[in-house]
Amino acid sequence: LKDGEEVTLIIDVSKAGEGQLLGTCKGPDSTNVTVKTTTLDNGDIEVSFKPKGDGDHTLDLTFNNRSIPGCPATINIRHVTPDSMGLVLELAPWEVDAGAKGAKGVRHPSFDDVTVQLNQTMKIPIDLSAAGPGNIEVSCMQEKTKTPCPVTVIPTKQGAVEIAVKPLETGPHLLHITFNGVDLPKSPFRFMVEPPSGANAVTLKKNSQAVKVVKDGVQFAIDCSRAGPGVLTAACTGLMDSSYLATVRSPVVTN
Length: 255
Fold this sequence. Notes:
By secondary structure, the chain is mostly beta strands. Helices cover 0% and strands 43% of the residues. The protein is built from no helices and 25 strands. It has strands spanning 7-11, 21-26, 32-33, 35-39, 45-49, 55-63, 66-67, 73-77, 88-90, 94-95, 108-109, 115-117, 121-127, 136-142, 151-157, 160-165, 171-179, 182-183, 189-194, 203-204, 211-214, 217-220, 222-223, 236-237, 243-244. Strands 2, 3, 6, 7 and 8 form a five-stranded antiparallel sheet that branches. Strands 12, 14, 17, 18 and 19 form a five-stranded mixed sheet that branches. Strands 9-13-16-15 form a four-stranded mixed sheet, with no helix packed on it. Residues 82-86 have low confidence and may be disordered.
């Protein structure tokens, strides 16, 4: 999961008869986690909860006060970062004029032939140690539409910062960096943003059927429509490194 995301399950109660589905959950420290249940238009029940950190969460779903098959269930939550998802592009190597001060002494990566995918965050290490006292300011926008994109400047250590840029549109972008109000040499820097492709373009479907509990397991609906040619593979590892069968099926399209 990404930070702030909920775990969502779709429960089929069509053959259960009259009754009520309820859920309880305990986090890694045995504290109670709020479980929400929502009846969907097709009669299924959407169960969701927001995990309390990483670790085992115990979910118990009951129907008419009896646990449904497979419950209580232990769900191991692991939050992912953009780095672990392949969504971060880190630039290198350094460029700097020897002995320069001020804006000319700010060390930064080369931007020659840099291309970013739309859902990637570009991380730019900046070394200010040779530049002397001062402030760095950064802005970025799409060159043609002038649409600004989010930019974050994070101090990483004494005399160094990291610039994180997350483009919102495809096409050429301009990154403007100044130090004490003076443009860095070659600023603004130009880079290209392309549509996502390959693994970076594979996502969970954005609807209530993305994750569904069925009789023989849990189903995930994966959208590969923008990924291009390739093969999707899956593997599942449980507690104590135990392995589970994971299969990939293409949907059957009927006229």
